[in-house]
Amino acid sequence: MQDYHSLIAGKWVKSSKKLKIENPANQKIIGYLYDVGSQGAKKAIEAAHNAFPNWSGNTAKYRSDILKKWYSLIKKNKKEISKIITLESGKPLKESEAEVEYGASFIEWFAEQSLRVSGEIFNSPDIKKKMMTIKQPIGVVSAITPWNFPLAMVTRKTSAAMACGCTVVLKPSELTPITSIKLAELALKAGVPPGVLNVVNGNPKIIGKSLSTHPFVKKITFTGSTLVGKLLMRNASNTVKSVSLELGGNAPFVVFDDSNLENAVNGLIDSKFRNAGQTCISANRVFVQESVEKKFLDLLINKIESLKIGDGMKNSDIGPLINTKAILKLKSHIKDALKKGANLLCGGSVSTVGELFFQPTVLSNITSKMMAFNNENFGPLVPIILFKNDESLIKMCNDTSYGLAAYFYSQNSKRIWNISEKLEFGMVGVNTGKISTYLNPFGGFKESGIGREGSTDGLEAFLEKKYISWDQN
Ligand code: ADP
């Protein structure tokens, strides 16, 4: 059984306390993760602090060339990394392969974009003065990432930070740490200097406390639950650290009467069943206009029946949920909905494939009083809500404290513009269930987060703008 350690100041650091890493498809132990605790976190922050002057003091081109090497090494090792992702997260291998491509694309993008970071020179109102701004890296960054995209969430944060000249302490999810460890090995191979990228593993509460309170840390970038995001924000407030948060979602997926229903079903399958529904932008509430209910549901259930549930290594479409907690949550949402009057159209229970595999489930007659409407289901559950007109629909869509992603299908251009404007969500998919690329600003409104990742905004999150007023006398 392999042991996995933390990377601090360019060295793999051992410790005595270990956690099990399990394959969710069969609960077999695939390795042991050694917990470096708060002492390890502190050492990693100090290492990042010490590495900052040289890394930030070098040219953008120097950093960009190293990041491009990292990108190439990840692409070269795609097969091995994809297998690691599937083993520790459970997602189907084809999705892991897509994640490697998607995750690597951030490194290439930020390596290129960082060459274009620039300041401004203004027309000064005072003839003797020159006024300008320059952009500088914010400093040491704490990055905390979730289990569901063990590669892409890491590269989206770390490559943007490193491209700007920041140094990083990464705490990956303890459920899926091996991918990060592999990424860090490749980063060292690519020439990332010691201390620029540190990886600390172990108990999230203890390590998270150090990463969010240490005065050397200038920025926290986090993807995960709203609960933990709020806690980190509170911790950050003591030393006024900058925060970027990508938190939970409650995405509406709307099927209007004028939509292409085949496309809508395919889009819903993409959005809902990727990673067995365990993504923050998964469709969480499906609104169907009354007149197309029957046709849409027939098409949907037909399509769902063709999906193969099974071990991600064995060419399946839907893998396991991550752990028993996820199964219990989904079961409680279904039980609550059925008790309050929902109808079960298919699925509804754990699959015979294994104890963490859940059948794709469709519930109709969902109302805003149900847990499945108000909470992230994070599983292969499709809650159907019928609607009559655009006004009542918008009200229901926005009736949530979340605001990450929303999707709708329509062929009517006036409606497309109107609905896009009125949805209180950071990202809107029109006639598509796939919205994520390196190019789009990824992030949410309301309690779904603060800031944007990817796109040109992704670099701004790690840069400070400095104003210089220069009296030439
Ligand atoms: P999810 O439900 O998506 O796993 P979490 O917010 O629990 O969301 O986890 C996301 C990341 O936050 C993981 O790396 C996890 O280890 C970490 N985490 C969990 N609890 C805390 C905490 N109290 N402080 C800091 N990080 C935490």
- The termini sit apart by 70 Å
Task: Assign the CATH architecture of the largest domain.
Answer: 3-Layer(aba) Sandwich
The kinds of small molecule bound in this structure are: adenosine-5'-diphosphate
Q: In percent terms, what proportion of residues is strand?
A: 15-25%
Largest sheet: 7 strands, mixed
Count structural domains: 2
Helical content stands at 25-40%
Main β-sheet, spatial strand arrangement? 15-16-17-14-13-19-20
Mean pLDDT: 98
Query: Given the C-alpha coordinates, what overall shape results?
Result: globular
Low-pLDDT runs: none
The radius of gyration is 23 Å
Please tell me about this protein's structure.
It is a single chain. This protein is of the alpha/beta class. It has 2 domains: 3-247 and 448-471, 3-Layer(aba) Sandwich (Aldehyde Dehydrogenase, Chain A, domain 1), CATH 3.40.605.10; 251-437, Aldehyde Dehydrogenase, Chain A, domain 2. It has 15 helices and 23 strands. It has helices at residues 37-57, 60-76, 78-89, 93-113, 152-164, 178-190, 204-213, 226-237, 261-273, 293-305, 324-339, 371-374, 390-397, 413-422, 457-460, and strands at 3-4, 6-8, 11-13, 17-23, 28-35, 120-122, 129-137, 140-144, 167-171, 197-199, 217-223, 242-246, 251-255, 283-289, 343-346, 361-364, 381-387, 402-403, 405-409, 427-430, 445-446, 449-450, 463-471. A 7-stranded mixed β-sheet has the order 15-16-17-14-13-19-20, sandwiched between helices. Strands 10-9-8-11-12-22 form a 6-stranded mixed β-sheet, sandwiched between helices. Helix 14 (413-422) links the parallel strand 19 (405-409) and strand 20. 51% of the residues are buried. The site of adenosine-5'-diphosphate has 14 residues, from helix 7 and helix 8.
